[in-house]
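In response to reviewer comment 3 from the previous cycle, which asked for concrete evidence that the modeling workflow produces usable outputs, we include below a single protein chain processed end to end. The sequence was submitted unchanged, and the resulting structure tokens are shown without manual editing.
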Amino acid sequence: MADGINTLGFDVDVRHVYPCNVIPFHGVASQDRLNRLKDSLSADGWNGTPIVVYDNLALGGAHRIAAARDLDIDVPVIDIEDLIHAAGEDPTDYDIQTREDAIEALGVVPGISEFA
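The workflow returned the following structure tokens.
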């Protein structure tokens, strides 16, 4: 764990950024889910995994980002390159230009579904 955040055992740097600096891939699909996350964040803080980002574009976690924005709390993020490197791969072997490229590259990281 880094700063109380679950990194699934990977030795990676977790940055805490203002939520407006993280761009979710899609909007909020469920207001109920957003409300539950806000209740949880208010009561317990950020529990679970950080958001994986590529150039500040989130590869998942749109509801968690929206909840953090509403509550004005920082979002823990991990850069995709750091995660690929921690999995024993060379990030420069991957030509990441789009979100789809990033998701494909993440396939080399064991347990990556936990970050989505």
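Residues 15-109 form a domain with the Conserved hypothetical protein from pyrococcus furiosus pfu- 392566-001, ParB domain fold (CATH 3.90.1530.10). We consider this sufficient to address the reviewer's concern, and the full set will be provided in the supplementary archive.
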